[in-house]
Design brief:
The protein is built from 17 helices and 20 strands. It is α/β, with parallel strands linked by helices and 537 residues long. It is globular.
Length: 537
């Protein structure tokens, strides 16, 4: 039997990141993937001949530059091109453009509200202040608040030192920020309806909450704390689609001597004597390893691939109640040409970035109301991008591809999902875009429509939740995924977790995978292959 030092379950970007760092440290590592391709939700696939879709994740920002450098992902082909701004179309034929250049962006805000133009300077400064603070915790293991270990005490000391640098009023403001709704937070800065709606969108993406739900202000911060080429808050396209991220990590992993097996679905983590000893595949094959790492979400890990008799009853209860509600849909659309958007000036750079079609907080909240009633919204929040403007290799010459992320789409609809209802959901999204682009429907060559049902079935994200667990205060830091299990170690010896269900959460970040690798290597007494000493100041 081929004995491995470690088996990683799931070839999503966090699983591959974890495996790459373990292999870099000299371990013999096997990655097992149920699909016939790697990448999980970070994948590029050709479902229409000539067009390459970023099927699930579609823009890049949160991926940690430290990981990029340590795994030499540039040498393995990963290139990210910064987006140029974003726009929200108004129902009256106008638009709001958030331009990449700060001076132009401020003039555009002033076109809608001179007061908001002044407030935007304060808003940007405050948001970046919290981004800088939070970014320092992304590649660190959360301390256990009930532990008396020296390492946990030192980590708490680090946290206290960071917060000690804040003034009393800033600490009060920071605590409020984590508990506020995005609508209430933004209303402290802005008055224009379209500006409020534009900046609220990032707080509802991927979450089962609305713009007036407490805790959504933090989700905005989660989306804003990434960077492209050192520009904090910037977003970008990976050349070749988001699958290029996974492809580069896999290439790095293989260069370190790792092994990947596709079409190898793990049915069960084998436990003997309170120790994980291997995995059982759906084919009946058993593969042994000294260490087992799950890149599946917390619910799937503990309720699907682990035997309940191997788990404490309290952990089963926490896994059953873990908040991982699906609320998102996705369309990938092959286009015969570039859509027209008459609201924008001719040659506007705003089509190069995110395009939104919901211009008030009221419309955003009503879309959420539909989701709560298990209906897809007929007036959905849409985040559309056309990456082929940057990367023509993703479509035939002169053609384009549009990637469309949608809120809100329920996990369950009355009578259950079927192909007809899925197509009706897709039609509602296409209608939303077509209201602002008269030639859009005529250009459609092919459209792939994904509800949470398709996302879960193909990618394995429970309920189609893209963050593998809600990013609410009760599921962050040492509470992620559950109290007592936030340091990437499982309930049995030699079993670990590295998915986005763990700190610091979802998005194409790589941090959970790298953090888990650090803890595994620490337990094995191996040299740390992860980038730098994250325990340092």
């Amino acid at each position: 039997m081929n004995k491995y030092d470690a088996i990683v379950i799931g070839a999503g970007h966090n699983g591959l990141t974890n495996a790459a760092f373990l292999a870099k440290a000299g371990l013999k590592v096997l990655v097992l993937e149920k699909n016939d391709y790697i990448g999980g939700a970070t994948v590029s696939r050709e479902l229409q001949e000539g067009w390459k879709y970023s099927n699930c994740s579609y823009v890049c920002s949160l991926f940690r530059p430290e990981i990029y450098q340590s795994l030499e992902l540039g040498r393995h082909g990963l290139e990210v091109v910064p987006l140029q701004g974003s726009t929200t179309f108004k129902q009256n034929g106008d638009y709001f453009g958030s331009y990449h250049q700060s001076a132009v962006r401020r003039r555009e805000i002033a076109r809608h509200s001179k007061r908001d133009a002044d407030a935007s300077i304060r808003f940007d400064a405050d948001l970046m202040k919290w981004c800088r603070l939070i970014r320092g915790f992304l590649l660190r293991t959360p301390p256990d608040p009930v532990s008396f270990k020296m390492r946990d005490a030192m980590e708490f000391a680090y946290l206290l030192k960071k917060f000690y640098s804040l003034s009393e009023s800033q600490i009060y403001e920071f605590i409020r920020f984590f508990t506020m709704s995005i609508a209430e937070y933004l209303e402290e800065y802005f008055e224009s309806d379209v500006i409020l709606a534009h900046f609220s969108g990032g707080s509802i993406i991927g979450t089962g909450l609305g713009v007036y739900s407490p805790g959504t202000a933090y989700v905005l911060l989660h989306h804003a704390m990434g960077d492209v080429d050192g520009n904090v808050g910037s977003w970008g396209f990976a050349r070749g689609g988001m699958g290029s991220v996974s492809k580069a990590i896999a290439s790095s992993f293989l260069a370190f001597g790792g092994e990947i097996r596709t079409q190898a679905e793990v049915e069960k983590i084998v436990v003997s004597g309170r120790k994980a000893t291997g995995v059982l595949l759906s084919s009946g094959e058993e593969v042994s390893a000294k260490t087992i790492v799950s890149n599946l979400d917390a619910k799937r890990t503990f309720l699907k691939v682990m035997d309940r008799k191997d788990l404490p009853a309290a952990l089963i209860h926490r896994a059953e109640n873990f908040k991982i509600r699906g609320s998102s849909g996705k369309l990938n659309i092959a286009l015969d040409g570039m859509p027209d958007f008459p609201s924008l000036p001719k040659g506007s750079p705003l089509t190069l970035g995110h395009m939104h079609f919901t211009d008030t907080l009221e419309r955003l909240e009503r879309a959420y109301d539909d989701w709560k009633d298990d209906r897809w919204s007929q007036d959905p929040y849409v985040d559309a991008v056309i990456p082929t403007q940057y990367d023509p290799s993703m479509s035939p010459p002169g053609k384009h591809m549009m990637s469309v992320f949608v809120q809100y789409c329920p996990v369950a609809v009355e009578g259950g999902w079927n192909n007809e209802k899925r197509d009706e959901f897709g039609a509602a999204v296409i209608d939303q875009i077509a209201r602002y682009s008269p030639n859009f429907k005529d250009l459609i060559v092919h459209a792939e429509v994904r509800t949470p049902k398709e996302i879960e079935a193909e990618v394995g994200l429970t309920e189609g939740n893209i963050f593998q667990g809600e990013l609410t205060l009760d599921q962050l830091m040492f509470n992620r995924p559950f109290p007592g299990y936030a340091q990437y170690r499982g309930p049995v010896k030699n079993m670990y977790m590295c998915s986005s269900s763990n700190h610091p959460g979802g998005g194409v970040m790589g941090a959970p995978g790298a953090n888990a690798a650090r803890e595994i290597l620490l337990d094995l007494g191996k040299p740390d292959s992860t980038p730098g000493d994250f325990g340092d100041d």
